[in-house]
């Protein structure tokens, strides 16, 4: 499962740093999650997940507070949660999750990002079955054995624990996300390098250099779309 989560996160954060695009996307996700339930992460698990992921990207508190206050204020702004599936060069697979207030616009933009970069949209279910929803938490300052001991004492089952660079990355079932966080916090660990529920490909592929360059261009085009919240894929390449 080694997907180099810290490198992926750092690359994305660096790319978006000058435009604050990532902050705007988190603002929208936080607003939607807060609108769907209570605007309190202790009673709204969806909001709690988004806030934990936002923390690993160093999203400013002002962005978070503004989105939650907007939800509390009864804003009538609404968004649809959509999932698109598609293919890139050489059999690569992509899942795109979006939040949009204009379904036609988003569908057109996502289709264009695929088509202009050697890919094409697929029908619903054409790709998702090759991915697994997974809780991923990364932390520093502990060994894999120490992390495993913490989780075993809390009676938490995990799929895998890997050391990636200076971090230990834990992979588990999505419903174990909050239990893992609570176990780590009980052990005095409150800062995470990654904390999210994501989609991980069952099998990664490696692309030849020319196809990889085209694939990265396609992923960047999708990431840059305002309505796109998350992009998942099955390509393994050096970040």
Automatic annotation (TrEMBL):
One of its GO terms (cellular component) is cytosol. Coiled coil: none annotated. Residues 3-74 form the TACO1/YebC-like N-terminal domain. Residues 79-235 form the TACO1/YebC-like second and third domain. It holds the Pfam family Transcrip_reg. It is found in: Cytoplasm. GO terms for molecular function: DNA binding. Keywords: Cytoplasm, DNA-binding, Transcription, Transcription regulation. The keyword Lipid biosynthesis does not apply. One of its GO terms (biological process) is regulation of DNA-templated transcription. Belongs to the TACO1 family. YeeN subfamily. NCBIfam families: PRK00110.1, PRK12378.1, YebC/PmpR family DNA-binding transcriptional regulator. This is Probable transcriptional regulatory protein NCTC4824_02156. It comes from Lederbergia lenta. The lineage of its organism: Bacteria, Bacillati, Bacillota, Bacilli, Bacillales.
């Amino acid at each position: 499962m080694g997907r180099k989560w810290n490198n992926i996160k750092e690359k994305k954060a660096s790319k978006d740093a000058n435009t604050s695009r990532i902050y705007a996307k988190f603002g929208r996700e936080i607003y939607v999650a807060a609108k769907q339930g209570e605007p309190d992460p202790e009673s709204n698990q969806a909001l709690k997940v988004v806030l934990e992921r936002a923390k690993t990207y160093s999203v400013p508190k002002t962005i978070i507070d503004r989105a939650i206050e907007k939800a509390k204020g009864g804003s009538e702004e609404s968004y649809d949660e959509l999932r698109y599936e598609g293919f890139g060069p050489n059999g690569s697979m992509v899942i795109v999750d979006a939040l949009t207030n204009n379904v036609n616009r988003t569908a057109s933009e996502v289709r264009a990002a695929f088509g202009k970069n050697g890919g094409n949209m697929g029908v619903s279910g054409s790709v998702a079955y090759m991915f697994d929803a997974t809780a991923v938490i990364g932390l520093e300052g502990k060994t894999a054995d120490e992390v495993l001991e913490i989780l075993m004492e809390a009676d938490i089952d995990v799929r895998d624990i890997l050391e990636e660079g200076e971090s230990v990355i834990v992979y588990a079932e999505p419903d174990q996300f909050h239990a893992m966080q609570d176990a780590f916090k009980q052990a005095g660990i409150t800062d995470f390098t990654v904390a999210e529920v994501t989609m991980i490909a069952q099998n990664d592929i490696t692309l030849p250099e020319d196809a990889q360059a085209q694939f990265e261009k396609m992923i960047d085009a999708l990431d840059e779309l305002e309505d796109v919240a998350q992009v998942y894929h099955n390509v393994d390449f050096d970040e």
